[in-house]
Specification:
The complex is a heterodimer of chains A (about 290) and B (about 160).
Chain A (H helix, E strand, L loop, with lengths): L6 E4 L3 H10 L4 E4 L5 H6 L7 E4 L9 E3 L3 E5 L4 H6 L1 H6 L1 H7 L5 H4 L4 H7 L5 H9 L1 E7 L2 E6 H4 E3 L2 E2 L6 E8 L4 E9 L9 E10 L2 E10 L6 E2 L1 H7 L9 H14 L10 H22 L5
Parallel strand pairs in A: 1-3, 2-3
Antiparallel strand pairs in A: 4-5, 5-10, 6-7, 6-10, 8-9, 11-12, 12-13, 13-14
Helix pairs in contact in A: 7-8, 10-11, 11-12
Chain B lengths: L2 E7 L2 E7 L5 H7 L19 E4 L2 E4 L12 E3 L12 H9 L8 H14 L5 H7 L11 H21 L1
Parallel strand pairs in B: 1-5
Antiparallel strand pairs in B: 1-2, 3-4, 3-5
The chains are: A alpha+beta (about 290), B alpha+beta (about 160).
């Protein structure tokens, strides 16, 4: 199929893009890599009057690694982020997660920020953002604001962004201390959206878990933090995290997800996998953090 | 309203006026007359529309034509002359990697991008590089063998000339 006609705006500046959005917030869509939006247009699932193309805004194409965070611009392609050794050295979970985003051909064009803003609950990058923590910088005619990762995802394909706002960059926090990570997803084929997946970061101080972040994606209308499971292991000695505690964390995760039945898997199956992946995520993150667990 | 699009397609400077909602695939096929890239899903799932933009494989169905202004596009028509197929095409024939042929142009483009960047690729790398290309006929084994065979030949040739 062909997209319905729209007005196309190849913007050169953020102000220009914001101006168009502000003049017609409900009839405008922001186009970055287009790997979700253009298929949606092709299938006529959306028919915006104005398409605001931000690919020519040079200031949006950047990766900035700072001591406490990494900032990724809204124009930066996924393959560029995937290959950044500097980013990899501080946030290795990003490269692993990106290798599961579509296929290399998609990542040649798609952007990390676009994937986060699209907010597909089964997608990898929203889950990574929620796990790692950080903030989104949003511009509108009214000014600039930041939205924290915990407040960003609201529902299926729905974020805290207003229709007249445009995201210019996303900051990912860099964890402090000895931190282990884990990423895994269950899918029928590599490159498909996940039936269910997990992202985790576990930090140690001495032998004690000082911080745990576990996110399940594909298990509800948004990526979901497994806060009960996180609390169970936080403060525990790594050497004590074994059979019983892992089992309880898995039960908590299975109870925390809100999956639905669909053509790919049943809700029961997803609940089972949520527990399994949570258990595996804790174990492997602790190993990577360098504990003897 | 139409806008001017200036691109280099298979080495030829090309200018067309296109409406902004037209995909690169659509303009290549209908305005420029290159029907090698195929429309399978229009959803970035199948890879039959694969072309190279500035040397990198992309799904031309999910790329607005106007976004390629000033860029270099390579389609299957630019890979070789019919009388002298590219090593990948020859290997696909010899290994039986072509059945209905609908996916083949896209497969060749993904494989070419891989071999251009990494001629000493192994089987895992071939399978990853072809991850965005669906084939409903062959079961992929013969396609993967063909790409590995082409890689060997290209390396042998590089070895003898270099």
């Amino acid at each position: 199929m062909k997209p319905p006609p729209f007005k196309y705006h190849a913007c050169r500046t953020i102000d220009e893009a914001v101006g168009i959005l502000d003049s017609d917030p409900d009839g405008s869509k922001v186009l970055a890599g287009g790997q979700s939006l253009v298929p949606v247009l092709n299938l006529r699932l959306a028919a915006p009057d104005n398409l605001v193309d931000i690919n020519s805004i040079e200031s949006l194409d950047h990766i900035r690694v700072q001591p406490d965070h990494v900032a990724i611009g809204a124009g930066t392609r996924q393959y560029v982020v995937e290959r950044s050794d500097q980013l990899h050295s501080v946030l290795p979970v990003v490269r692993e997660a990106l290798s599961h985003v579509g296929h290399s051909q998609i990542r040649n064009r798609g952007t990390v920020v676009g994937s986060i803003c699209h907010a597909d609950p089964a997608a990898e990058m929203p889950a990574v953002f929620l796990t790692v923590g950080g903030e989104v910088t949003a511009h509108s005619a009214a000014g600039t604001r930041t939205i924290g990762s915990d407040d960003f995802f609201e529902s299926y394909l729905t974020t805290a962004l207003e229709p007249n706002e445009i995201v210019t960059q996303v900051k990912f926090d860099i964890p402090s201390g000895r931190t282990g990570w884990y990423f895994e997803e269950v899918a029928r084929r590599h490159g498909d959206f996940a039936i269910l997946g997990v992202v985790a970061l576990v930090s140690l101080e001495g032998d004690t878990v000082s911080r745990a972040r576990i996110t399940i994606f594909g298990g509800g209308a948004t990526p979901l933090r497994m806060t009960a499971a996180e609390q169970l292991i936080t403060g525990a000695k790594a050497s004590d995290i074994g059979g019983d505690l892992l089992e309880r964390a898995a039960i908590e995760a299975s109870a925390a997800v809100r999956p639905t039945d669909d053509i790919h898997a049943s809700a029961d199956y997803r609940r089972h996998v949520a527990g399994l992946l949570t258990r595996r995520a804790v174990t492997r993150s602790l190993e990577r953090a360098g504990s003897p667990a | 309203m139409k806008y001017p699009l200036n691109v280099r397609v298979n080495g030829v400077e090309t200018s067309v006026d296109v409406e902004p909602h037209r995909s690169l695939l659509n303009v290549l096929r209908e305005d420029i007359g290159l029907t090698g890239p195929k429309e399978g899903c229009d959803d970035s799932e199948c890879g039959a529309c694969m072309v190279l933009v500035d040397g990198r494989p992309v799904n031309s169905c999910s790329y607005l034509a106007l976004q390629t202004d000033g860029r270099e596009i390579t389609t299957i028509e630019g890979v070789s002359e019919p009388s002298c197929p590219h090593s990948i095409q020859q290997a696909l024939l010899e290994e039986g990697g072509v059945q209905c042929g609908f996916c083949t142009p896209g497969i060749v483009m993904s494989a070419k991008a891989l071999l251009d960047a990494n001629p000493s690729c192994d089987e895992d790398e071939v399978r990853l590089a072809l991850g965005g290309n669906l084939c409903r006929c062959t079961g992929y084994q013969k396609i993967v063998r063909a790409v590995l065979r082409a890689a060997e030949q290209l390396q042998d040739r590089a070895g003898t000339t270099g």
